[in-house]
Design a protein that fits this description.
Largest sheet of chain A: 6 strands, antiparallel
Strand content of chain A: 15-25%
Distance between the termini of chain A: 64 Å
Helix content of chain A: 25-40%
Number of helices of chain A: 8
Largest interface: A-B, 50 and 50 residues
Order of helices and strands of chain A: HEEHEEEEEEEEHHHEHHEEH
CATH superfamily of the largest domain in chain A: Jelly Rolls
Radius of gyration of chain A: 20 Å
Number of strands of chain A: 13
Shape of chain A: globular
Number of domains of chain A: 2
CATH topology of the largest domain in chain A: Jelly Rolls
Oligomer: homodimer
Strand order of the largest sheet of chain A: 1-2-3-10-5-8
DNA sequence: CGGGGATTTGACACATATCAAGAGCGGTGG
DNA sequence: CCACCGCTCTTGATATGTGTCAAATCCCCG
């Protein structure tokens, strides 16, 4: 605790340079006191539901941040697992790579979401996480989190909830990939994004996609041309207005209807 | 702890009846001292890596079992979440149901595997788990597990690993559903089963499928006819010998080759 | 031994992939 | 500030893998 306090008193801020492109092992890390307790994302992130002393304990844990520039990876498959990361700002994608070169986007990550849990099981990361725009994450050293969660039941519980929800989310994606048609997949994708933006205080109906058509397609198990075509079709039908990365949802109900009952053709 | 000891001393064994078909809320539960420490599955299950006193602590936790007959559910979506289940014998499937009636098998579970983690996040289960043959599970009351894992770091770590591996497994399924062709999906499925049977001391090359073609198809995002056709094709090509549920893998290498490098058509 | 679900197989339909070309947009350098 | 270049996106024509529908067979269970 004193060590943490020391760091808080004498913050070391590395210059936000692009100086050492060689040292991929020493990424840009900012050591400043990050206050979970006063973070705007605390209701979405690991601190959710914690209070008072519990939050203080978490604050001790999360004291470094890292910036990741657009296109750079936060970590790659095979990297040693040491920390989890909470997205503080920006946007990430997770990808899994097959030996033959095929890869698939398995998730998109928004502020407040926790990344890196794939590494716990094998002490190595099993996917690649890349920033889709200039981003920043809070670093949570996993061993510290485990130690703290032995003292703070609510923290342990919250961490378990986060992991469990990730499992449920994955099942939703399997459902999407396994049983839905292209139209439904895209509708589901848009509604999911919309909902997550709302939770973060942004517009429910208008937002900018941070990913390309190809990345959307990869996530949805479709080719980029198909994604583009369906965007166009939705546009024609007046469900959305798309102009490149900008999307405005015009008829939420119609999109929702695409999911509920289809198949009756 | 004394309460647990008491239960161990005075085991209550409910009669293995089919007496009360109405009381779905009171399933058949056997209260006997289940010894993780002497369980044949301990290297595959939650106890993996634990030793001595740690194992003893786990033994206190797992003292009830439950039988689930073929076709019955272990739990259903919406049920209150209270416990995790470790498969002791038998075979299960997990399914997710969409409002419109479509459902998808999201996993098959073999002895030693942990079920129920989908419920942690929302205190309710989010999928249905059904026995594919007469089965038995060990019941692990989740609050007890959390309490114990605050005392036993190795147990906490092991539990986190199990959840993390589940996340990685899910990513593998997404990959399969998102990028693989039908042939590759089935090859991947057979190799996965084979590997898991080996880990349990069964033959690597010959086993009985516990699920129908339709369930395989649901899991792989294919129709049952497609699954059947590809089984037949593999058979013709001499890769496997299938006769209904019985499968014998004749050319493991060839199946593996289907995954590594395809796409070069 | 009978019945019904599970499986196999065939013919055909259709959704999405593939291939190809052109347009739009953003970043870079003169 | 404008022009160019490259990447992303759109759209069309066509190919193909898998789904759909249907019927026959198999086999397990009662």
């Amino acid at each position: 605790m004193s060590a943490v306090a020391l760091r808080a008193v004498t913050p070391i801020r590395t210059i936000p340079m692009k100086a050492q492109p060689i040292q991929a092992t020493t990424p840009e890390v900012t050591k400043v006191r990050t206050q979970c307790s006063s973070c705007g994302l605390r209701e979405l992130c690991l601190p959710c539901g914690l209070s008072g002393a519990e939050l203080d304990r978490l604050d001790e844990l999360v004291y470094t941040r890292r910036r990741v520039k657009k296109g750079e990876s936060l970590y790659q498959a095979g990297d040693a697992f040491k920390s989890l990361y909470a997205v503080r700002s920006g946007f990430f994608k997770s990808c899994v790579l097959l030996e033959d070169g095929r890869d698939q986007v398995t998730a998109f990550h928004m502020p407040g979401e926790l990344i890196g849990m794939d590494g716990i099981g094998s002490d190595r990361h099993n996917n690649n996480v890349v920033a889709l725009e200039d981003s920043e994450v809070c670093i949570i050293v996993f061993s510290s989190l485990e130690r703290a969660s032995m003292e703070v039941p609510a923290l342990q519980r919250q961490f378990h909830k986060v992991m469990s929800r990730e499992l449920v989310r994955d099942q939703g994606v399997m459902m999407l990939l396994g049983t839905m048609r292209a139209e439904e997949r895209l509708a589901s994708f848009l509604l999911n994004l919309s909902q997550r933006f709302v939770a973060r205080g942004y517009s429910q109906t208008e937002f900018n996609l941070r990913m390309t058509r190809e990345e959307i397609g990869s996530y949805l198990g479709l080719k980029l041309e198909t994604v583009s075509r369906i965007f166009s079709r939705f546009h024609e039908e007046g469900l959305i207005a798309v102009q490149q990365k900008n999307v405005r949802i015009l008829d939420v109900a119609a999109l929702k209807r695409m999911l509920g009952r289809q198949i009756d053709h």
